[in-house]
Specification:
- The complex is a heterodimer of chains A (373) and B (325).
- Chain A has a five-stranded parallel β-sheet, sandwiched between helices. In chain A, strands 4-5 form a two-stranded antiparallel ribbon.
- The longest helix of chain A is centred in the N-terminal third of the chain and has 26 residues.
- Chain A has two domains: 330 residues, Rossmann fold; 32 residues, no CATH class.
- With 373 residues, chain A is of the alpha/beta class.
- With 325 residues, chain B is of the alpha/beta class.
- Chain B folds into two domains: 183 residues, Rossmann fold (3-Layer(aba) Sandwich), CATH 3.40.50.970; 127 residues, Rossmann fold, CATH 3.40.50.
- Helices cover 35% and strands 20% of the residues of chain B.
- The radius of gyration of chain B is 19 Å and the shape is globular.
- The chains are: A alpha/beta (373), B alpha/beta (325).
- Chains A and B meet through α9, α10, α16 and α17 of A and α3, α4 and α5 of B.
- Chain B: Its cofactor is thiamine diphosphate.
Chain lengths: 373, 325
């Protein structure tokens, strides 16, 4: 009888080992500013190190100034990026202009790095059609997606389109958060791209929280990177508070995809320092200061600032000047955004169909008459 | 010119657009080697290759989401959703995404996507295979919803749908696939997407119908002709937008109207037609607007379909009621 009860499959063993090797985050500098991988660190020139630091300072300043505008009631929906500078700028730095970006709503900084303007970012937040003028300029980017996961299936289609067009050295790339990996579209997107071996890199910025729901509620999977395994997509975790590691991993993933190997999945381990959005979310309702403290210690700017300061490439005065310069630019961008023309309902109607339907045509007339008064 | 079934006419139209435009792509579940579960895409993969006509993983949101990315990168996608009930899995891609892009980008981005999908009752299928779900989709700005009622229109309309630069939901009636044959011209021709068709002229009453109900209405017209009652039958062809002009011209002549549809009555194209008449042409009528539709229950179990679906008898009864008002 004993033999009959013996398990055929050791599920416990499978469960305990299936995360390997997806839970060894790549790191170059640790949170104390110590270089933990000298070989990787030496790949960066002094200029590159300074550029990466400047990009993070830019994103931090953008966040601070944007929150100011938000508090003044000058913006609409805005998703703070505070704490995610290494993840977002490390990835953005690894991408090329010809790549197609499918951002989500917390990815305005990457969208701006890809060719949108700060003014357009503000218009997106305020709700104005000129937010998407970047497409008219030929910037290869879609909208900051609101529906969680939709960007994953759409970008898989763009990656297939790139492949069918025979475009070399070009990928689609997209972002979601830890919560987004629970969506069906997340799996459908990575699986379609994998089935078609399309050139794409899928990024999961695991910032710990989907509004108030913690990462652990999303899934019992040990990592989000391992979610690629089921669809044949290699996944990896990277320290998303370390811009050097994030950049190197994003670049490797991009190289892998453009070489015709199919898609890759990268999970950046980061933290949402602020609220989910500027519209009333209060993290103190669902997380403790004790939880936040170690993550604030991992602030991506602290570690690179220390390394650069030690190398005499950076000082506080330089940073202060940069921040002031950036913030002046953002103030100008806001002025431009606020000068955007009043929107016309007749224009919306004209852009509902290429050839207006009879009902739409009648509405266009009606609103044009109203708007000419 | 050849006699062709409704389904072959669609295949023929797809063949034409694949030939005319190298950017067209047909994809979906089983559309490749198998030629679709109904054989609508039969032979097309052999003729145009696996780059142009191909199977996808089994996921409707993936299929329609992918269509958006393909359209953005310059392709003209013709995805198939195997049964209309399965579009429920992809409502965001249709209503939340592709239909909004022309608006979002102020006309700079087109989504020339034709979603083909079979629908309609009477073939005793499993649940969510035969439902008429057009009521859900006619409320989406930026999306055209069309359905042909005969083989000639089927080919001409599928070509128009693919050549249109906006997303089109192209509904193919399951029951009509093989039950109708018609003369279908060779080569390229189009049937407008937003023009209703007066399929039979009459002077006493107008029946506005679409898809399989057009044939039911024609049966009624034949029958009543023997009693010297002259029924005009209009095939809507397009459920969004509605061609009011053709409908109003007809009721200005007949002064009576019955609207017939297979879908439930609670919302949708028939309700829009009734509302448009009531709003804009009510003084032409000398009797109330008559409606024939399925009851507002869930689409029935297969064995109950025959007494749930509205048919010629229901239309005839309603026509007599309105005539005798």
């Amino acid at each position: 009888m004993a033999a009959k009860n013996k398990h055929v499959v050791d599920f416990a063993k499978i469960k305990s080992t299936m995360s390997d090797p997806y839970d060894k985050p790549v790191q170059v500098i640790d949170e104390t500013g110590k270089i933990v991988n000298q070989e990787l660190f030496d790949r960066f020139s002094d200029d590159e190190l300074v550029t990466l630091m400047e990009k993070m300072v830019w994103e931090r300043a953008l966040h601070e100034q944007t929150m100011n505008f938000s508090r003044q009631g000058r913006l609409g929906f805005y998703a703070p990026t505070y704490g995610e500078e290494a993840s977002e700028m490390g990835i953005a730095h690894a991408m090329k202009k010809q790549d197609y970006l499918f951002p989500a709503y917390r990815d305005l900084p990457q969208l701006i790095q890809h060719g949108a303007t700060v003014k357009e970012g503000y218009l997106w937040s305020k709700g104005h059609y000129q937010a998407y003028d970047y497409v008219r300029r030929g910037v290869r980017a879609f909208i900051p997606q609101i529906i969680i996961g939709a960007q994953y299936v759409q970008s898989a289609g763009a990656a297939l389109g790139i492949k069918k067009n025979g475009e070399k050295d070009t990928i689609a790339y997209t972002f979601t958060g830890d919560g987004g990996t629970s969506q069906g579209d997340f799996y459908e997107g990575i699986n379609f791209a994998s089935s078609f071996q399309a050139p794409e890199v899928f990024f999961v910025q695991n910032n710990g929280w989907a509004i108030s729901v913690p990462r652990k509620t999303q899934t019992a999977a040990k990592t989000l990177a391992q979610k690629g395994v089921a669809s044949g997509v290699p996944g990896v975790q990277v320290d998303g508070m370390d811009i050097l590691a994030t950049y190197l991993v994003a670049k490797d993933a991009r190289d892998f995809a453009v070489a015709g190997n199919g898609p890759a999945l990268v999970e950046t381990l980061t933290y949402r320092f602020g609220a989910h959005s500027s519209a009333g979310d209060d993290p103190s309702r669902y997380r403790t200061k004790e939880e936040e403290k170690p993550w604030f210690d991992r602030d991506p700017l602290i570690r690179l600032r220390k390394v650069l300061t030690d190398k005499k490439l950076w000082d506080q005065d330089k940073e202060d000047k940069l921040v002031a310069q950036y913030k002046d630019e953002f103030k100008e961008a806001m002025k431009d955004a606020e000068a955007a023309p009043k929107q016309k309902v007749s224009d919306f109607l004209k852009h509902t169909f290429e050839v207006p339907t009879p009902d739409v045509a009648a509405d266009i007339k009606k609103f044009e008459a109203k708007e000419s008064k | 010119m050849a006699k062709m079934t409704y389904i072959k006419a669609i295949t023929n139209g797809l063949d034409q657009v694949l030939q005319d435009d190298p950017k067209t792509l047909i994809f979906g579940e089983d559309v490749g080697k198998n030629g679709g579960v109904f054989r609508t895409t039969e032979g097309l993969q052999d003729k145009y290759g696996e780059d142009r006509v191909f199977d996808t993983p089994l996921a409707e949101s993936g299929i329609l989401g992918m269509s958006i990315g393909l359209a953005l990168t310059g392709w003209r996608p013709i995805p198939e959703i195997q049964f209309m009930g399965f579009t429920m899995e992809a409502v965001d891609s249709i209503g939340g995404q592709m239909s909004r892009n022309r608006f979002r980008f102020s006309g700079d981005v087109s989504m020339p996507i034709t979603i083909r999908t079979p629908f309609g009752g009477g073939t005793h299928t499993a649940e969510l295979h035969g439902d008429s779900l057009e009521n859900l989709f006619v409320g989406i700005p930026g999306l055209r919803v069309v359905t042909p009622a005969n083989p000639y229109d089927a080919k001409g309309m599928v070509i128009s749908a693919v050549e249109n630069n906006d997303p089109v939901l192209f509904m193919e009636n399951l029951k009509l696939y093989r039950s109708m044959k018609d003369e279908v011209p060779d080569g390229h021709y189009t049937v407008p997407l937003d023009k209703a068709n007066v399929v039979r002229e009459g002077s006493d009453i107008t029946v506005v119908a679409y898809s399989a109900e057009v044939n039911e209405a024609l049966k009624v017209a034949d029958k009543l002709e023997k009693e010297n009652i002259s029924v005009e039958v209009i095939d809507l062809r397009s459920l969004s937008p509605i061609d009011d002009e053709t409908i109003f011209a007809s009721i200005d002549k007949t002064h009576k109207v019955v609207i017939a549809q297979e879908a439930q009555k609670m919302a949708g194209a028939g309700a829009k037609v009734a509302a448009d008449i009531a709003e804009n042409d009510i003084m032409s009528l000398d009797a109330p607007i008559g409606r024939v539709a399925a009851p507002d229950s869930i689409f029935p179990f297969a064995m109950a379909e025959n007494y749930w679906l509205p048919n010629a008898d229901d239309i005839e009864a309603k026509v007599r009621e309105i005539l005798n008002y």
